[in-house]
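Sequence, please.
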């Protein structure tokens, strides 16, 4: 369920791949049973492709990765979190159209 530039974050790779990133990271918390997550998935994949090199994009399956989910206090999905320098700088909950999502992400890319 990932595009060419979309990573699948797991309990095993999360610390290095997400928190250790030198560029901002967008984490999409989702689950296979979540209809809004399925609507958001292609938008996340498009953003990953369009912003490759400026933004690292990865998905966390909340059912498969409860430690990551709980570590971020995710109670509703989809939840999107932006990390800079390994720290959370912004969070959005729920489906968001691509244009609106991009307007929230762009300030963190500079």
């Amino acid at each position: 369920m990932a595009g060419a530039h979309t990573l699948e974050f797991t309990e095993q790779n999360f610390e290095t791949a997400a928190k250790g990133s030198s560029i901002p990271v967008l984490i999409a918390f989702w689950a296979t049973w979540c209809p809004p997550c399925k609507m958001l998935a292609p938008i996340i994949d498009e953003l990953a492709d369009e912003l490759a090199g400026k933004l690292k994009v990865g998905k966390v399956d909340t059912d498969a990765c409860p430690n990551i989910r709980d570590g971020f206090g995710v109670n509703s999905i989809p939840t999107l979190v932006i990390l800079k320098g390994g720290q959370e700088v912004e969070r959005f909950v729920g489906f968001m159209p691509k244009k609106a999502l991009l307007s929230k992400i762009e300030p963190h890319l500079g």
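The first helix runs from residue 14 to 19.
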